[in-house]
Amino acid sequence: MASQWVELRDLKFILHEVFNIGEEFLGKGKFADHDVDMVNMVLDQAAKFTENDIAPTYPDEVQRKPVEAVFKDGKVYVPEAYKKIYQLYCEGGWMTVSDSPEVGGQGFPALIAAACAQMFLAGNQAFLMYPGLTHGAARLVEDHFQHPLRETILEKMYTGVWAGTMCLTEPGAGSDVGALKSTAKKNADGTYSITGTKCFISAGDHNLTENIIHPVLARIEGDPAGTKGISIFVVPKIRINPDGSLGEPNDVNCGGIESKMGIHGNSTCTLNFGENGKCIGWLMGEERQGMPIMFQMMNEERQGVGTMGVALSTSAYLHALSYAKERLQGVNIMQMKDPNAKQCPIIQHPDVRRMLLKMKSITDAIRILALYCYYAMDKKAAATDDAEKNKWEGIIEMYTPLVKSFCTDMGDVVTNLAVQTYGGYGFCREYPVEQMMRDNKINTIYEGTNGIQALDLLGRKLGMKKGLYFMNMLGETAAQVAKAKTNDNLKAEAEIVEKALNACAGTAMQFSQLIKTNPFIPLIAAWDYLNCLSEAICGWFHIWMANVATEKLAAGPIEQDKMFYTGKIEGAKFFINRITALVPAKLETLTKDEISCVRIPEEAFAV
Amino acid sequence: MASQWVELRDLKFILHEVFNIGEEFLGKGKFADHDVDMVNMVLDQAAKFTENDIAPTYPDEVQRKPVEAVFKDGKVYVPEAYKKIYQLYCEGGWMTVSDSPEVGGQGFPALIAAACAQMFLAGNQAFLMYPGLTHGAARLVEDHFQHPLRETILEKMYTGVWAGTMCLTEPGAGSDVGALKSTAKKNADGTYSITGTKCFISAGDHNLTENIIHPVLARIEGDPAGTKGISIFVVPKIRINPDGSLGEPNDVNCGGIESKMGIHGNSTCTLNFGENGKCIGWLMGEERQGMPIMFQMMNEERQGVGTMGVALSTSAYLHALSYAKERLQGVNIMQMKDPNAKQCPIIQHPDVRRMLLKMKSITDAIRILALYCYYAMDKKAAATDDAEKNKWEGIIEMYTPLVKSFCTDMGDVVTNLAVQTYGGYGFCREYPVEQMMRDNKINTIYEGTNGIQALDLLGRKLGMKKGLYFMNMLGETAAQVAKAKTNDNLKAEAEIVEKALNACAGTAMQFSQLIKTNPFIPLIAAWDYLNCLSEAICGWFHIWMANVATEKLAAGPIEQDKMFYTGKIEGAKFFINRITALVPAKLETLTKDEISCVRIPEEAFAV
Asked: Does B171 touch chain A (CB under 8 A)?
């Protein structure tokens, strides 16, 4: 019986059989002490932890009572069940799977922590955001905080004794970060007095830990307007004494939490800093370096959010699949004329199979898309020369907006299809798929809306290094496409993928001209272009996986593996023939001089 | 300031300027006493009622307290605010806008009631389902119930003193109606004793009315299995004495209500009939005629559900538009290099405009798509010869699955985009768009899932009368396409629409062959084909509207109308160039011998 939460076999397939981490990374350089067995042990444990401990805390309604973060008398309380899994998470060392042994980590490749996160997030995204943001904030402290308390803070955060956040958004400054109003005033002792209100702060306050470390974006008095004048500060919820013990509260107060569509277990807080003039922060990095420092965490979180889309797609698909195998309704189409035909499981109906294979083939594609970025991080870390390092840095830059945007938009598609597969039951809270659909919706929004990702791709990434990064990205696809072309069973699909990738390159060239003459054409097309590129690239990932599956099948594997590899090939065929195949036609519509949405007067949208 | 709930100007445009009901229907035949002013008065009143009374009851959470139907001690309570609007709805005569004066109705064309319903549903779908189902059940009683109490029941239902439902689904019989287990046993006095459990019964029990009339599908003892043996019964919640007064409870008990993703104000009930052997029903129509009678209501409800998709798209779009005009964030792209540029409303950003015009052009399309079916009903009712009647009957048959499926799937798309337009605020319950997204999801499921609609189109409708209905449907599009081709500003779009419609016809021909040789190809393609046909047909509707707008613009209208007509033309261009244009490429993928989702072994979906 397959799990309803994690696809462990798929993760191992990607890591070992597609990315071949045993040859690529393990036993070498900083991974000299790691081997395949250790990796598999970690993955197995993560799967068990997800199934046995995290997933049972998933429902945000139990017996019609909401299970949610609660704000009462100025304090925030997480769902009671989170306390135990938070403790298990910290004790299990899950916070630092891929972090350096110097900070207490286990030093695995980034891929391993990412694979674990795909599982944990599937079990309960709202919960995992508490340790997830803690880890992200700790990484900033590790890289940018120079202060006698650095070691103390790091140790407390990486062990989960203290938590972390990212305090960026303000009521008037969401996508437009430069408009923020929070201020910092330098004190005689070198600290800063922080004042301002931040909103939508995920895991912004809670009772999981005794202290919370807030990286806070603010403008030092007198610094220029816009993003250039922004600095970033370490602001603890409770002050920290020079010996590392906790002191007085630091005038960081939760003004309330949002009532949301989903992720009810996570506290989305409004935080008031320095209402009483007593909020003290320490500068992180240099003055006015807030944006690049913040973006280090933001880029990591964007990978993380893409992973959330993958995780929810996985659990939604697996639930729908399990339901479709059990639910009896109607008769098999081949027995329609038999009056004595028995009801069959709905998985036998062609349209249900279409929905299931669509879910599977999308989920398979975005899983490897999200993991490929971590693969690139590991490749970059393992690179021995600058050219190689630069190449993988470019891959990370190019893929980040795709991972954040496409994985989460596809999360909407897959969770919606899962609800549809359940029929009326899918709309009921008795089953978890409606919650997965609600939970995923935030993933298309936070850490830069998907529209922002599209502008990042189009306005920054495509032209980086005069297009070299983009060319490298496409260049990496050549070998597997060429290999598939020599296989009669995949030749047609390889050609579709090649055509789609070429069309993406061609459109990018057209855009680079149009941006000078009629910039609105590419600007309007940005989101659709990001999707086209993702659909072409995911076609390539499918080809790659199908190439591996073809070789493995030729070796005559055991029955279960035979089924697994067959599923990979059929999924590739579905995705490429139904989705990637449409990319050239879609791109054609995007380069037409069709700017009705710019031309239309504002008054004409509705009267 | 445009409304955030209703697009009154758009409804009048379709009724008067596109469908030209003044010439077509009003003042003639059974509409001899109706004129344009009366229609506009009704529409104006409906808009006001929606804005002032219905919409304020919309939120399903107020100050963090749920507003929902509640089940307590065996009884169901609707949200308190529903009582007043239910009373206003009944007193206002809204139940019977287009019903015959013989039953107390106002006798307007069906289009008028449909236009009002689009507005009311936008104001609160969960509420409107109570009177909506009452009306549908009353129509069945009117057409099929022969009994001394018929007049009494009709009068009580059409005035809203008693309510109605449709009791079809059972826990083991959803899409597979023939599997139902409810039974009826004929008594000596001609009544039937009913036993069985029904689930997912919308508005199944509540405290809005003193009685509820349930049409119940059940099998008379000894009748054959499957759909052929099903009969339908009138089963009151409270027994009715021969003089029309209420008697004892009729052993119809609510076993509970569902906790759902959305439409929290509507009670989705499990109903137990005859638990104590004391549930009495009267036969409706003849024995074993349950399915065709039920389908009369089902087909009307399918139009109604499509209308729900239109309604939620409208209110979601209008809210997003209003927000986009107010929310300041970032600077206008043309001022990017100006350090003193002020923040602009987000409607000025190209990607936001793309989302808005996508929402608008889809909503405009599905609005007229849904109304066209009612137009066909009025044309059929007004037809003076059988050929004409038959033609419009064919149009209704062809369009019903498109209306139910495409309008609601697009409801998912538009409500999702509305959430996205709000950014983080869209995910918060403080704003209504997240609720609209949750509410709409049921519309793709109930009254026949959209997958069922696609099979209805492909398996039944395309081949009806040897394809004549389908040919008629396409034939109706010719005149407006030809007219647009003579207009330089619409010629390119008209050609795209023509090409898409021709491709739909061609694919249908291919399917009719394939269904004999490789039936899985069309069966797998059914849902996508329904969407392609809808996207092509909606292109035609846009052409039709743009033709009208072009003529009106030429006449030099007042400024507000100029904006309105300009919006119609730009919306048409966006929809046709971005959506209809892709239809031929999509259809091409559907006719390929690509049946991976049938070929894949069940065990290969996940291991």
From this structure: no
What does the alpha-carbon distance between residue A500 and residue A496 come to, in Å, rounded to a whole number?
Answer: 6
Bridge partners, residue A249, by sequence? A238
Residue B13 DSSP one-character state: I
Say which residues have a Cβ less than 8 Å from residue A191's Cβ, sequence separation at least 6.
A280, A281, A282
- Give the closest of A9, A329, A603 to B607, CB-based: A9
Q: Over 70: is that where the pLDDT of B513 sits?
A: yes
> How would residue A53 be classed by pLDDT, with cut points 50, 70 and 90?
very high
Cβ contacts of B526 on chain A, cutoff 8 Å: 350-351
Question: Which residue from A585, A476, A279 is spatially nearest to B580, judged by alpha carbons?
Answer: A585
Q: Which of residues 196-225 of B touch A (CB under 8 A)?
A: 200, 225
Q: B591: pLDDT confidence band, cut at 50, 70 and 90?
A: very high
Tokens standing for A32?
């000299």
Distances (CA, A) of B318 to B59, B325, B351, B417: 16, 11, 17, 12
Q: Tell whether A567 is within 8 A of chain B (Cβ).
A: yes
The helix (H) or strand (E) run that includes residue A468 is: helix A468-475
Compute the distance between CA of residue A425 and CA of residue B66 in angstroms, rounded to an integer: 21
B37 burial type by CB count under 10 A (0-12 exposed, 13-18 middle, 19+ buried): exposed
User: Does the pTM of the predicted model rise above 0.95?
Assistant: yes
Question: What is the rounded average pLDDT of the residues B379-388?
Answer: 95
What are the start-end ranges of the H helices in B145-260?
A: 150-158
Q: pLDDT digit string (tens) for A224-237?
A: 999 999 999 999 99
How would you write B488-543 as a 3-class SS string? CCCHHHHHHHHHHHHHHHHHHHHHHHHHHHCCHHHHHHHHHHHHHHHHHHHHHHHH
On the question of pLDDT at A1 being above 70, the answer is no
Mean per-residue pLDDT of chain B: 97
A 388-417 residues with CB below 8 A of B? 412, 416
Alpha-carbon distance B586 to nearest alpha carbon in chain A (angstroms): 7
What integer pLDDT is reported at residue B557 of this predicted model?
93
Task: Tell me the catalytic residues of A.
Answer: 447
The tokens describing B331, both together, are 């600077």
Strand partners for A238: A249
End-to-end CA distance of chain A: 56
Q: At B229, which amino acid appears?
A: G
Q: Which of A364-373, A539-548, A571-580, B339-348 has the lowest mean pLDDT?
A: B339-348
How far apart CA A588 and CA B313 sit, in angstroms, is 28
Q: Do B353 and A585 touch (CB under 8 A)?
A: no
Catalytic hit among B393, B397, B434, B447: B447
Cα distance between residue B248 and residue B239, in whole Å = 5
Say whether residue A360 is in contact with chain B using an 8 A CB cutoff: yes
pLDDT at residue B2, as a whole number: 77
Asked if A62 has any chain B CB less than 8 Å from its own CB, the reply is: no
Among candidates A424, A561, A606 on the partner chain, residue whose Cβ is nearest the Cβ of B7: A606
